[in-house]
Structure formats: C-alpha cells, structure tokens
Specification:
About 35% of the residues lie in helices and about 20% in strands. By secondary structure, it is of the alpha/beta class. Strand 1, helix 1 and strand 2 form a beta-alpha-beta unit. Helix 1 crosses helix 11. The relative contact order is 0.16.
C-alpha cells in the first residue's frame, strides 16, 4: 500500500461507531484526513429477547453469520452446527473468538459468494440458522430454501439511523460543499441513511463527491438516486482496499468509474 497516497484528500467515513478505526488509521497513514460520520447505529437486542426467540428454533446443522456485528452479538447463540461466514472480516471475528470457520467464500465477501460454496449447494434436508440484524437481504434464506434447506433467522441486533444535532449536519454539508472529498459507503442501507440525514443542499453536494464502496449494489443505487455522482468500486471491504480505491480517483472527477 506504499504507493496508495491520499495526501490532501478528505474522506467522509460513514461506518458505525467502533468499526471505523482500522479504516481511519489507514486513511491517515496514507496522508488523508478522516471525517467520521457514522450513519448506522448498532443496538444489541436484549439477551432475554434473543433467548425467547431461540427457544422456538430447532438445532441447526449450519449456522451462517452475515457480518461482524452478527458475530459480536450472536456467537454465543450459535449452537453446535458448522459455522459459515459471509466474508473474510466476519470469518476473522469468529476466529478471534477462538471458534472454527467451516464454510467461507473462496473469493468475494457477500451472500452470492457464500452461496457458491459447495457446502451450501447441497443442503436438502438440513436446518440452517442465519444470525443477523433485524431485517436485511432475503437472498441467503430464499436461495437455501429453494435448495431444500429449512432456514430460520436469529436476529441479535437492530440498526438505526443516528440522530445528529443540526450543527453537526451543517459541518458535514460544509465539508461536502468544499469539494475534493471522497465518501466511503459500505452498504445500500448506509447510503440511504446518509442521503436521509442530509438536507437538500447536502444531497446536491454529495452528488458531486467521489463515492467509494466495495458493493456493486451500492453503485447501482447511487446511479439511480444521484445520477452522475462519481463512483468507484473497491476490490473489497478491507481498509487497504478502500484506501487504494480512493487513491485511484482523480481530483474533481466526474461520471462513473465502476
């Protein structure tokens, strides 16, 4: 990453509080300036509510963790089934807790990549538990059910948009309006929350910013909501991959680079 320099570049980091440290450190090590503006709050569900939901679920053959948040708040409720992780960051969180990851994508870091693994293609008659936050994509469960598995959810946290004072929103708008800024958005939900938090002037400025994401679905959503917003697709969700993607963007670029 020595050749990935961000000298003089401001980067709006929208990851949840407590999850942006690695990215912020990588940005600043490359000479950039981080503006920390979480657009999602992670709120754990109570152990009593989780235990109540768990009481009605069968023992799983396979337990799928969809995120690091799912691991942090749900590993204790995983049971004895084989453990699947949707991507490398999720797998690393499981292993950091001294558990073994049995199924992980050979490449990629999303539901589609995990579903391509042989261990999840032949699942007829198996019981699969998906540990996640409240709501979210249905692709995993729908596909696994189509393949003959019995699938249930264990939802262990909720996601909310933060409530910011007007002064903090105004500060972010000024940063966007100043130009020559990159905005890191990790998910469609993060993008939706960011747009909802900004006033009209902030949305106009966001449409001219350089948006970086590891998710092709975000690129499509940005194209639909903010036509012409400059975008680039990072190779993955890791801090180094995000920094490299930011470094490839020319200042004041226009149009898409996806």
């Amino acid at each position: 990453m020595a050749d990935a320099r961000l000298d003089g570049v401001s980067v709006l980091v929208t990851r949840p509080a407590g999850q942006s440290g690695e990215l912020v450190s990588a940005i600043e090590a490359a000479g950039g300036r981080s503006i920390i503006f979480p657009v999602i709050e992670i709120v754990p569900r109570s152990p009593q509510d989780i235990a109540s939901d768990l009481a009605g679920l069968p023992d799983p053959d396979i337990v799928v963790f969809v995120s690091r948040n799912a691991v942090e708040h749900g590993l204790a409720w995983s049971g004895d089934g084989a453990i699947a992780a949707v991507g490398p960051a999720t797998a690393a969180a499981i292993e950091a807790a001294a558990r073994v990851v049995d199924i992980r994508p050979a490449s990629g870091f999303d539901s589609e990549s995990l579903l391509a693994e042989p261990a999840l293609t032949e699942v007829r008659g198996k019981t699969i538990r998906i540990i996640r936050g409240i709501g979210g994509r249905e692709l995993l469960a729908r596909t696994l059910r189509d393949r003959g598995a019995s699938v249930d959810y264990l939802e262990v946290y909720a996601r909310h948009a933060p409530n910011y004072p007007e002064t903090e929103i105004a500060s972010v708008v000024r940063e966007l309006e100043a130009g020559d800024i990159a905005v890191v958005v990790m998910s469609v939900e993060s993008f939706h929350n960011l747009v909802a938090l900004l006033p009209v002037s902030g949305r106009r400025a966001l449409a001219k910013a350089r948006l970086v994401t590891p998710a092709a679905r975000v690129i499509k959503e940005v194209s639909d909501r903010l036509p012409g917003c400059p975008t680039t697709l990072a190779d993955g969700p890791g801090a180094d991959e995000i920094v490299r993607a930011i470094a490839t963007l020319a200042p004041h670029s226009s149009g898409q680079n996806s």
